[in-house]
């Protein structure tokens, strides 16, 4: 039987796995392989939280393959040389993989595909990460979209019922191709010591089975009412599928199909709102593909000359550690540190505080999220930070400055989220948790360890941001 290397990357699943499916349907013996080569990802090699998740997700994939009679071959890069050597060793005539869209990876993969084909191998990549390829949705003039609403309208017009695929119960063994056994996962990605990631796994279960459970839980518990509950910080009103989607543990096509098939008990408003969130994920990849410099440069070129504040290390550290003196901001940053995740509404609030009230460059925040989020995705992370900072595609205007007290009162009305993640404020009456500096005696008596005042006065910080933006406009 002819052999095909099935190169796993951020597509760590068996169902709806296009490379594996192609190998089986074309009669090739699939040899599943994962190659660890973080240095090939340029300036955006995976962060610590991503590596912690990847280790567990790869272990889950290896177990799933072994239950089917196959196994995962884990190797260390460089990717091209490793694939070439493995193809020669196994006699493989094909290398198949699922596409990624990060700029450094797109360039690398194009080089790998050319080199493999020049060597006489069949090299083919597939879409397994998006509903629509970035080059499939364009304006009438053929340009990429920079605004979400027309992008999503055009994308939805192209919607086709996805062709889902369940992996077979048994797979051929790579031993028939005399494949080597590779590197132990514990050697490649050792578990953290001490286990700083322990809180992650109280909320998440990496792997395809964990993704399936998360999807079922969302469909059964949170899809109904999603449109309103998704913004409430203390409620489990979001899908929490983002890390599973990032690592490809569930296909976005399967998620979308499940939501569309949820039945008449789900209001159209809830269904469409969630599909639009998947649309924002698509839009982020669309922008990253067409504007590959956005992880480091503003998409809105006006902001290349914006007067960001000097990044004072003490202020930046206090933001990272959840010690800003603004409870909703501190709650979000502590949730991130403990769980590797943060509620989406709160992400916008903490990002606005950093980029508007502190006026620090959005890259400082993007880098911190990149290292600490289990769903750290270059397209989505960049989109989120540039959107909040007012510098990106379809961005909130820079002069829109979130008031963190107003936001907390609206989206955490009982102060439950704040009490959960800033427990020193739990003794305060709920309405005193939003702006405790307004009741200094109560704060001193019931929460003596919490900062007496915010890093900057809210009104003064907002005014300084508006003045900096006014200077930018006058310079034009």
UniProtKB/TrEMBL annotation:
<dbReference type="InterPro" id="IPR002081">
    <property type="entry name" value="Cryptochrome/DNA_photolyase_1"/>
</dbReference>
<dbReference type="InterPro" id="IPR018394">
    <property type="entry name" value="DNA_photolyase_1_CS_C"/>
</dbReference>
<feature type="domain" description="Photolyase/cryptochrome alpha/beta">
    <location>
        <begin position="2"/>
        <end position="131"/>
    </location>
</feature>
<dbReference type="InterPro" id="IPR036155">
    <property type="entry name" value="Crypto/Photolyase_N_sf"/>
</dbReference>
<protein>
    <submittedName>
        <fullName>Cryptochrome/photolyase family protein</fullName>
        <ecNumber>4.1.99.3</ecNumber>
    </submittedName>
</protein>
<comment type="similarity">
    <text>Belongs to the DNA photolyase family.</text>
</comment>
<keyword id="KW-0157">Chromophore</keyword>
<keyword id="KW-0285">Flavoprotein</keyword>
<comment type="similarity">
    <text>Belongs to the DNA photolyase class-1 family.</text>
</comment>
<dbReference type="InterPro" id="IPR014729">
    <property type="entry name" value="Rossmann-like_a/b/a_fold"/>
</dbReference>
<dbReference type="InterPro" id="IPR006050">
    <property type="entry name" value="DNA_photolyase_N"/>
</dbReference>
<dbReference type="InterPro" id="IPR005101">
    <property type="entry name" value="Cryptochr/Photolyase_FAD-bd"/>
</dbReference>
<dbReference type="Pfam" id="PF03441">
    <property type="entry name" value="FAD_binding_7"/>
</dbReference>
<keyword id="KW-0456">Lyase</keyword>
<dbReference type="Pfam" id="PF00875">
    <property type="entry name" value="DNA_photolyase"/>
</dbReference>
<dbReference type="InterPro" id="IPR036134">
    <property type="entry name" value="Crypto/Photolyase_FAD-like_sf"/>
</dbReference>
<keyword id="KW-0274">FAD</keyword>
<dbReference type="GO" id="GO:0003904">
    <property type="term" value="F:deoxyribodipyrimidine photo-lyase activity"/>
</dbReference>
